[in-house]
Amino acid sequence: MTTLSTIGAGNIGFNVAKAAVQAGYDVVLSNSRGPETLADKVAELGERARAATVEEAAAAGDMVLVAVPLHAIDQVPGDALVGKIVIDANNYYPQRDERIQALDTNALTTSELVQAHLKAARIVKAFNHIYAAQIPTDGQPAGSDGRRALAVAGDDAEAKARVVEFLDTLGFDAVDLGPLSESWRIERDTPGYGPRMTAAELADVTAGTERIKQL
Fold it and tell me: What total number of domains does the chain contain?
């Protein structure tokens, strides 16, 4: 992979882009307000970054990070992401997103909800349980003592492997939670959500996590 695109250039989108540029990737930023609103962020990221429309960014990316509020996921153009590896960094916050029954009752995970909208994309859950500012600062070389791990989940094995490789280049180990249906193990309010952990610690914590209903 040489190009990462983001749909959404807020805290998560921008900081993943920053880490990607540091690791030598080209980056295309996009948001719902248009590329002209991203000039300052592109300038901060430097010559490897540019801004584009959402559709242009989706076409340009070898991998596309979707980091928009969950209530806005319906505005992400599914047709532009057919066959693309899409990293889903979404979390469900009812006070922001309003109540979503399928999530409140555990009928779906947030990533399954994203997959249901982006039907032909290859969704991989990642980056949803780390504070945004730590993404470009916490990476370490492979084999480092105490190297931080991030969880991934996905139904497409090849897409998931590509995201694991991407995480490694950014300086993180990966813990594979399995399919998207298991991504609840790292959703909001779970023990693995937020704290810095090694791969062994994160694997142990997520394996022992119990699922509770939102209501």
Answer: 1
